[in-house]
Specification:
- It is built from 3 helices and 2 strands.
- The protein has 106 residues and is mostly helical.
- A hairpin with a 4-residue loop joins strand 1 and strand 2.
- Helix 1 packs antiparallel against helix 2.
- The mean pLDDT is 90.
- The structure holds zinc ion.
- Zinc ion (ZN) binds next to helix 3.
Length: 106
């Protein structure tokens, strides 16, 4: 394993752990003080910020991480399509875009 591969593996594992990092439960206000809950919100905000910026950081380190991921399969996506009835615009890979557009025609 090259150092770059090792770094990627470490980053992927770190991101996986970050995504599962959730200290909140519905009953925190029954056993934590308001100050502790405020700190918990701050921790959660920082973890969200780390997750949101993680792909950008990977690109800065030279890893091949796509800027946009497919709404359906999470692979690299370049086509921006407005979803009818949802009124949202999402990115799709060519394969998912073609199959979605074909299903709309039928
Ligand atoms: Zn796709």
């Amino acid at each position: 394993m090259t150092p770059k591969q090792k770094q990627w593996k470490q980053r992927a594992w770190f991101k996986f752990r970050l995504l599962g990092f959730n200290l909140f439960t519905s009953d925190v206000n029954q056993f934590l003080t308001p100050d502790e809950i405020a700190d918990l919100y701050e921790i959660n905000r920082i973890v969200r910020k780390l997750v949101d910026n993680f792909d950008k950081g990977s690109r800065e380190l030279g890893f091949n991480v796509p800027e946009h991921k497919c709404y359906l399969c999470r692979k690299s996506a370049k086509r921006k399509i407005t979803i009818p009835y949802h009124n949202t615009t999402e990115y799709f890979c060519n394969k998912c875009a073609e199959s979605s557009l074909n299903s709309l025609k039928e």
